[in-house]
Specification:
The chain is mostly helical. It has one domain. Helices cover 51% and strands 0% of the residues. α4 packs antiparallel against α5 (111-123). The longest helix has 19 residues, at 87-105. The chain starts with 25 loop residues before the first helix and ends with a helix.
């Protein structure tokens, strides 16, 4: 049996098997596991740092490059300034709420589950969201 060559664009130089990288908060993991039948919706990239390793042109945008997402989360987690706006955590919160609305509109969850997800997200303090990312 012959192996197929890697057909993922930009990954021709990667060794088999292809490994994909993603960054996900623990809060997102918890919601997906608890309310979406353990289905996870994530962005994956073929390199942890596409700017350094891939040779891709153009490079992945900052918001799609796993190492940049990680660094942004890390900054949000480690800065303990009350007045600092946690951009990545805020984006994650908005995305989780938007995802819940989409799941509800598709009929994948009911109104009660939608409200549980909203409560889970909204009751989670900034510090809990920071810590939840570290726990994962």
């Amino acid at each position: 049996m012959t192996q197929k060559k890697n057909k993922i664009q930009g990954c021709e130089k990667m060794k088999e098997p292809v490994v994909l990288y993603s960054i996900q908060s623990y809060l997102a993991y918890y919601i997906n596991t608890t309310y979406y039948d353990d289905k996870h919706f994530v962005w994956c990239a073929p390199f942890f740092d596409s700017n350094k390793e891939s040779g891709l042109t153009p490079k992945l945008p900052y918001t799609s490059n796993p190492i940049d997402i990680f660094k942004s989360y890390y900054k949000d987690i480690t800065i303990r300034d009350r007045h600092y706006k946690c951009n990545e955590i805020k984006r994650n919160t908005v995305a989780l709420l938007k995802g819940a609305k989409i799941m509800y509109s598709k009929g994948a969850i009911n109104e009660e589950t939608l409200q549980k997800i909203r409560r889970t997200i909204n009751l989670c303090s900034k510090d809990e969201k920071r810590l939840s990312i570290l726990d994962h």
